[in-house]
Write a structure and sequence with these properties.
heterodimer; A: three-stranded antiparallel beta sheet; B: about 300 residues; 9 helices
Chain lengths: ~220, ~300
């Protein structure tokens, strides 16, 4: 989904927007895949009624959204050869991150994990940015066979940035040999830190995924 | 020029619009978005004697015209609130605030309120009696007139500020509980807290909320709020703060007609963080439309034929 409007509050890869849909009480938090000064790209997976409704929107329709939510990835820790690890619906926010890291002159490697060949997306887009891309599918129908962690073992990298489901994070935590940052998902009430609906415990105290996250450091997570 | 001022136990508010506890934190997240000094006041995050992380996640479920939450009173504890949140609040909120207090025993309520009583920033107490009583078999204080009265009396004994008791709607006879609080010395009643609700995920066949059940709020509960504010304000002489599904200036007026002296806005803040400011801005025009010159004149008007 391509949106036009004021994007000045969206400053860091890993941030998200919270969009209001006709007839739905709660907003939908969606990560920002890419931004320009006048627009945002959102890529979402149709899983429920809300995302189905989004998929039926027509060009020119208006959306009410809260932008620039959450703490994104801290790029200053990347080192020279960061590794980006994306699983399924967690892939999109890594695109803007990849673009920024390459703009800073970093050598970026990307591992994308999917269940099967037909779910693969954004591979070519990452390549066009100049990243080295490796795709893994669980069933081996495309790229390497296995999980993202199977594709990580022979790589050398300075730091990692991940977005994906919790089981992937656990596997990444066991495999990764460097520090890293991970972007978490949780059911949210407000999306801006008021309701405490998405709190989690960390080694550095309780954190609100929406406000103190969604990106947390590997070192602070209670694995 | 219409007059939006209302009074709660001698405390004059510029307008009756008050963000409800649990939907506004300690105000900081909203103060980043707009100057929250336009509010009548606000009721801060439910505070307990000790810090609480609250319930496991998921804590939130969406419903038609509302939501269920099972946050479980996550808060930093009264000592931290006095040491950190309240001093910090001085930077962005210059009016007195409502201290929302919870507890799991009569003594806990009293101890928390006693500690907060010395803080000059607090205008009144709002004592949430919807929590389970650990010494009473886990049944909510607010579902028994005797237990609600006990909490009221215990808090009144250790405080100098007005004490409002926030009632749960999950009872058969709300008026008798409000009356018991009044008789025990309450200065006001606050209602309604959330309705106990539940959602089940069709795919997993399991409750959506980790704690299975939670508090249902949002526009869907507004008619229940109107009914209960009406019933309670008929049963007691002390002021009533009305809340439950309020999301517009019209809703504010409707609850005041039912008997509310001030009105809280809850779940709507989570969907539209600017909603309270918008309601305050719209209020004068809506008052004019309905021929209201002084807002306080309409309190309880629906009771008179």
């Amino acid at each position: 989904m391509e949106l036009q409007g004021d994007t000045s509050a969206v400053t860091t890869p890993g941030q998200f927007v919270n969009l209001r849909l006709e007839g739905r009480f709660l907003r939908r938090p969606i990560s920002v895949c890419d931004r320009t000064d006048t627009g945002l790209t959102l890529i979402y997976k149709t899983v429920g009624d809300g995302t189905r409704q989004m998929s039926r929107m027509l060009p020119g329709q208006e959306l009410d959204l809260l932008t620039g939510l959450g703490n994104g990835y801290d790029l200053s820790e990347s080192g020279e050869e960061p590794l980006l690890i994306g699983g399924g619906a967690g892939v999109p926010p890594l695109y803007w991150l990849c673009r920024e890291l390459i703009r800073q002159g970093k050598t970026v490697q990307v591992i994308l994990g999917f269940n099967t060949a037909e779910e693969v997306f954004l591979e070519e887009e990452f390549r066009s940015l100049g990243a080295k891309v490796r795709v893994m599918t669980a069933d081996g129908s495309y790229g390497g066979q296995g999980f993202v962690t199977d594709g990580m073992k022979d790589l050398s990298y300075s730091y990692f940035y991940a977005c994906g489901p919790m089981p992937m994070f656990r596997a990444v935590n066991q495999t990764a040999r460097t520090g890293g940052q991970l972007s978490f998902e949780e059911r949210m009430g407000c999306g801006f830190g008021a309701c405490m609906g998405c709190s989690c415990k960390t080694l550095t105290g309780s954190k609100r995924i929406c406000k103190d996250g969604p990106v947390l450091r590997r070192e602070e997570i209670l694995w | 020029m219409v007059d939006t001022k209302v009074t709660l136990s001698g405390w004059e508010l510029d307008n009756p619009v008050i963000p409800a506890s649990g939907t506004f934190g300690f105000g900081k997240e909203f103060a980043e978005l707009y100057d929250i000094n336009c509010l009548g006041t606000f009721s801060f995050k439910g505070t307990t004697l000790r810090p609480r992380f609250g319930n496991p996640t998921p804590r939130i479920a969406e419903c038609t015209a509302g939501m269920i939450n099972s946050v479980g009173l996550q808060n930093p504890g009264v000592d931290e609130v006095l040491r950190v949140q309240l001093p910090e609040m001085k930077q962005y909120f210059h009016k007195k605030v409502i201290a929302n207090v919870s507890g799991f025993s009569v003594e806990e309520y009293a101890q928390t309120c006693r500690k907060l009583d010395e803080c000059g920033q607090i205008g009144l107490f709002e004592v949430n009696v919807s929590c389970p009583n650990v010494h009473g078999g886990g049944i909510s204080f607010g579902t028994s007139p005797e237990a609600a009265a006990q909490v009221t009396a215990a808090v009144k004994k250790v405080t100098t500020k007005p004490v409002y008791i926030k009632l749960t709607p999950n009872v058969t006879d709300i008026a008798s509980i409000a009356k018991a609080c009044e008789d025990a010395g309450a200065d006001g009643i606050s209602l309604i807290n959330t309705l106990l609700g539940m959602r089940i995920d069709l795919k997993t066949r399991q409750p959506v909320i980790a704690n299975r059940m939670g508090g249902f709020s949002g526009p869907a509960v507004f008619p229940v709020a109107v009914r209960m504010v009406y019933q309670v304000s008929e049963a007691v002489k002390i002021p009533v703060m009305g809340m439950g599904g309020v999301s517009s200036a019209e809703d504010v007026i409707e609850l005041m007609l039912a008997g509310a002296s001030a009105v809280q806005v809850g779940a709507a803040n989570l969907v539209n963080p600017y909603v309270c400011r918008e309601i305050i801005e719209e209020l004068p025009a809506v008052m004019e439309r309905y021929g209201i010159e002084r807002l306080r004149d309409i309190i309880g008007a629906a009771h008179k034929e």
